[in-house]
Amino acid sequence: MPTDHSYTPDFLTPVPRHGESMADVAARIAATPGEEVDYQLDIAIRGRRVWPHVRAQHGSESTYERWRRPMPPALARVARDGGGAVATAAAAAMATLFESVLAPDWPRVRAVLDADISNRADRMAAHGAAAVLDDLGERMRWTGSELVLERTYSGIIDWADEGVLFVPATTHVGPVLFAAERPHTPVLFYRARGIGALGERPADTAESALTGLVGVTRAALLTTLDIPASTVELSRRTGWSNATVSYHLGILLRAGLVDRHRRGRVVHYARTDLGTALATSSAQEQTSRAAQPTTVCTDSATALAVNRRSGLSGRR
Hints:
316 residues, alpha+beta, disordered C terminus
């Protein structure tokens, strides 16, 4: 396996859009045209079609073939039905991964990402773009007129009118990654500041009483409702789909932990006195635990991310 091969087909990680839920992202993945999926698999997978303009970036066909990866058996089975089938299967897998593994930690991850964006925006306003670009990550430098990323292949991307979208990530710890595939805006993916906080989990910490009573998802929704919010607003805050939020709010409503009222066309949910008492007790419980001496484990940070980007663009 080549040491410099961090490629992942672009269709797996579409360019972020403000306010999207994971269900929206999965739908965009599933809607990727089959020919686009096939093209990106051609770039990455050994034995598939060789595109001359991609091979030319690697110097020789043998160098390019060493860079490519073998076809994983699971992917081979799906790819027999074409790129559209691969996109559909990938979208389902992404949605399942998020709901089953990542959703409970998404509010904490989102807080880290938002803080990174705010920090860099403030720094850019105070010191200019160069101050941010020079500190974005390893193997990238700003010359004053060009962003140069060090790779084993070469190519020039000249999209002066398109701009560049900067996307922080919470699991990536290597060099700055990029995507540049027309017609999408070029994107740079870099390690967010403050990701160490995501791994600060006390060892042998028992689940909170609230979580044990209502479950992880409903406990997170209840504690998030410090101010009334709609299903759409809660979906944006947590990263869960509208359907998931609505389902769990229905259970909290029947249990008397939340109430709802309409403002115009929008229904807002708010905690009842009982719900507030439970959420407040849970917060006090967590504060009490945090005040006790603990052993901090930081090796779980790499498992806590949604804003995932582990690849280079198909057209580099």
